[in-house]
Amino acid sequence: MTAISAADIDTAVRALRPRLGDRLLLPDDGGFDGARKVWNAAVSRRPALIARCRDTAEVGAAVRAARDAGLPLSVRAGGHDWAGRALRDGGLVIDLTGMRGATVDPAGRTVTVQGGATADDLLAATAPHGLVTATGVVRSVGLAGLTTAGGYGPLIGRFGLALDNLLGADVVLADGSTVTAGPDGDPELWWALRGGGGNFGVVTDLRFRLHDLPTVLAGMLLFPFAEAGAVLAGYAEIVADAPDELTVMTGFLPGPDGPMTFLCPFWSGADLAAGERAIARLRALGHPFVDQVGAMPYVAALGMFDANIVEGNHYLLRSRWLPSVSLAAADALTAAVAAISSPFSTLIVNRFHGAAARIDPAATAFANRVPHQVVEVIAVYPPTDAADRHRAWADSVVAALDPVSLPGAYPNLLGPDDDARARDSFAGNLDRLLAAKRRYDPDNAFSAIPALVD
Fold first, then answer.
1. What one-character DSSP code corresponds to residue 405?
2. How far apart are CA 282 and CA 223, in angstroms?
3. Cβ distance 132 to 126 under 8 Å?
């Protein structure tokens, strides 16, 4: 890429200032530093311009301005990507944080959200109707980034990935034009969006299928670290034949006296008594010193991990797919926690099963449809710490898991140096995805998943 000049930036400013006014932020403007912050304080990039858009037309104007000025382009929606790909040094950021509306059609069981909406925004609109859709496990995560790359979450067994519930999307392409992707409108783009990430355009509206779910049985079971072996072994046995209604996360969370082993069940079935019996099996795996499982609204259940996201901390993630939590995998995870580099770091294991595993791998760009576990290695440390030892710890965890891991990994969690593994994750869908990239974004304006920059 050629060097960015002041004249290039001025070209973009002249194109956008009349339209955006003071919502076009330059480095010397008040609010610029706040607008370039994301949840991971380790990310400190300095774009040339931030365009705080309010609608699809403004997004189209921003894309055209970046193209005409030759500026690198990035998109900030929820801002939850740990690697900070929402921001590019010297580039133009399309900021969707002002586009968070959600409109519910209760009769049609659908909801339409804007591109900057989070799970919290969606559920605030749907919960009064007793309706939900598949989301991630944290309320503050943006739906566009979550959905376009996958969308693991507590309802995956019953309702599938977030992307399996996507009915259509409005997308601003690299030339600034807008298309509606869906089964009846540009089905190829719709296919690519469901797993290919934000590599094809700016998603400004998403329409989701909704499901009746007024209550879930959910909560946290915390066990002593010394019981990790028994808990993980029992977990592996229970989830191997769990019904769709039961999705369970496990792993290790920080505690006041050191790491704690956790189980986090979500029962989404109507028969809460059956859910209680399933959760009783989980309780019996050890001696939980915290038992917060109970009936609650789905949105309340998503608040369980909020306390683990502390503004100002630095985060570094690694990820692997496992066919199961085998004895070897459990031993590797437990040993990793025993050698943890920070008292704030976590290991989380999410289950992929049920409805999500019954989709044809070729039906969406997301290719890994066999039951599996996704491991999140989350190194968390204060900004006063050097990153080296925390990076070394995270790398050692995935290295220990590699002998028992599947090819690829969840692209939403992979870093910019994991292109080969990201490509492996698309398996037989890779060539079709790269062809879609050449069709919709031949100049590689969008690079949310670097591996798909053809």
1. P
2. 11
3. yes
Contact assessment for residue 134 and residue 155, using Cβ atoms and an 8 Å cutoff: yes
Which residue spans within 11-109 are E strands per DSSP?
24-25, 49-52, 73-76, 92-95, 102-105
Q: What is the pLDDT along the chain (454 residues), one digit of tens a residue?
A: 457 889 999 999 999 999 999 999 999 999 999 999 998 999 999 999 999 999 999 999 999 999 999 999 999 998 888 888 899 999 999 999 999 999 999 999 999 999 999 999 999 999 999 999 999 999 999 999 999 999 999 999 999 999 999 999 999 999 999 999 999 999 999 999 999 999 999 999 999 999 999 999 999 999 999 999 999 999 999 999 999 999 999 999 999 999 999 999 999 999 999 999 999 999 999 999 999 999 999 999 998 877 666 778 999 999 999 999 999 999 999 999 999 999 999 999 999 999 999 999 999 999 999 999 999 999 999 999 999 999 999 999 999 999 999 999 999 999 888 999 999 999 999 999 999 999 999 999 998 888 888 6
| Distant-in-sequence contacts of 16-24, Cβ < 8 A, 24+ apart | 16/49, 16/51, 16/61, 16/62, 16/65, 19/58, 19/61, 20/51, 20/52, 20/53, 20/58, 23/51, 23/52, 23/53, 23/54, 23/98, 24/49, 24/50, 24/51, 24/52
Beta-bridged to residue 270, according to DSSP, are none
Closest CA to 211 of 129, 114, 115: 129
Radius of gyration from C-alpha coordinates of the chain: 22
| CB 120, CB 140: distance < 8 Å | yes
CB atoms within 10 A of CB 85: 22
- For 100-238, list the strands marked E by DSSP: 102-105, 110-114, 131-132, 166-172, 178-181, 202-209, 211-212, 216-218, 221-224
Buried b (16+ CB within 10 A) or exposed e, 139-171: bbbbbbbbbbbbbbbbbbbbbbbbbbbbbbbbb
**Whole-prediction pTM:** 0.96
